Fimbrial-type adhesion domain-containing protein
Amino acid sequence: MSLIRIILLNILLLTSLSASALCKKGPDFVRTELDDYGLSLAMGTINVSSLEIQPIGSPLGSNIVTFSQNPRYKSPDSVLWVCDIADKNNIFEIIATNGDDRYSGFYELGKADGYPDYYGTLFEHVALRLTHMNSGTVFTRQYQRIPMKNYQVSPDGSQIYIRVKDFSPIRADLIRVSGKTSAGSPSNYCARSSELTAGSYSCNQPNGYVSFCSPGSPDAYCDSGDSAFTFNGWYYDNWMAINMGISTGYPANLVSIPTCVAKSVTPMVFFPTISINDLNNGQTAQSSFNVHILCEGQSTSGETQGMTAMGLQVPYESYLTAQQLNLVNASGGVSYLLSEKYGQPGYASGVGIQIANSNDGVLRNFIGWFRCQAATCQPGGSGGWYAVRDGATQITNNGSAAINEYVVNFNAYLTRIAGETVTAGKVDASAEVLVKVQ
């Protein structure tokens, strides 16, 4: 009942807010454009090892965050903007890197290596690409305007409410690059003469911004051009910062530890056809696959800090569906890999894929898209991470100081999800092998 009262209270407040067609700040608006107010990308440990095992372009880390995860917002349903219904085609998200800062979005370091849209960071030889998930648009120094499709319509149909959850998730990807930032940007708010080679991301500068914009609305200002030299909207407080740094409480941490990488994986895994009756009677369809890994001689295989672990990560959309089905545990581990069109016409529902290391036959969790924070992250099997050489067979032996190859064999099972009703159809799923220093 209390939840209903809160919702009704919000509606009564909102219906009296806007008599004009201009978008105005809503009842739950708070500032998140300042350095200390930004959303942490929570990238965790970033390991840069030898070029032999991590050549230029090697992925170093990735994460997907939503603005609902910023603790400054009370709820995903918090209303940040209120607009007239006539403005439904005149509302936008604007995205850009923090272009005026040397370490936060000015230098497109990846371009010289063949990886455009990766921008230099405070970490040496580490570049960041940000992607607006709802549209697939990649952040650049140039402001880009993306129509907002998600919003809530008021009960009387006269207004639209822009909530925290209506803004797109943002994906962050880090790769290794050859270049470094130089002293040529408009500013250096991190106050450093060179990039960090190890340690915590100590700069509090955002790496990118998302803002709400509605042309003609003074508060919802629409920036355009190069973010290195134009940032008028920042002064209207309607920007939302995205940050790798220490001010958000969960800064990235750069280390240099001998490690392993994935060399190859069985590209396609096919299951034999199985009937609904067989699935309901506890039978499974089985197949197998393997992963080849390369390991530096001094690398350590394990699930604890400083050791290298491996896991299979589900796609983001599959993760969201798994959350709806209560298949995600408190550490972000996912018990079933779901079809990417789970339950849609022509696709099966009530079934998922489980995996086990063929060496021990124990079922494993998949890695989800859990926002790992320093205070709460629980590495290990609960989150889908397992010692990289668990059950591995060594293929090459080039000595303890050299790089050696291993193979890890897995069994995969197409099975009924407990408590779900099985429907017939195709199962088309994918997962990505991750190897990472914990």
Observations:
- Residues 1-20 have pLDDT under 50 and may be disordered.
- Residues 2-14 form the longest helix (13 residues).
